[in-house]
Specification:
The protein is α+β, with helices and mostly antiparallel strands. It is built from 5 helices and 2 strands; from the N terminus they run αββαααα. β1 and β2 (27-32) form a beta hairpin. The protein starts with 9 loop residues before the first helix and ends with a helix. The mean pLDDT is 96. It comes from Streptococcus anginosus DORA_7. InterPro entries: P-loop_NTPase.
Length: 84
């Protein structure tokens, strides 16, 4: 079964999507698994879509010196990263 979800709510995308297709001006500009797509924080912000709130928060922590193997896209992933 396939469900197509069209939204600008990136937290919903992180929680519900298996695959993400990012479009800008009618063109496909990025696709992949949510975690893969949302690692490109600067790109997603440059096209005014952004990333999930927890991903942005983790990016800010990383910018301040916190070492993370990847940017989490859900709160559950963030908890796992912090607690191993």
């Amino acid at each position: 079964m396939t469900i197509v979800l069209v939204t600008h709510l990136m937290d919903d995308v992180a929680n519900f999507a298996d695959t993400v297709y990012v479009m800008e001006k009618g063109r496909l500009v990025k696709s992949g698994k949510p975690r893969q797509v949302f690692q490109a924080v600067a790109f997603m912000e440059s096209i005014q879509l952004g990333v999930p709130k927890i991903t942005k928060f983790a990016q800010e922590l990383k910018n301040r010196g916190l070492t993370l193997p990847y940017l989490p896209i859900t709160i559950e992933e963030f908890k796992e990263l912090l607690h191993g």
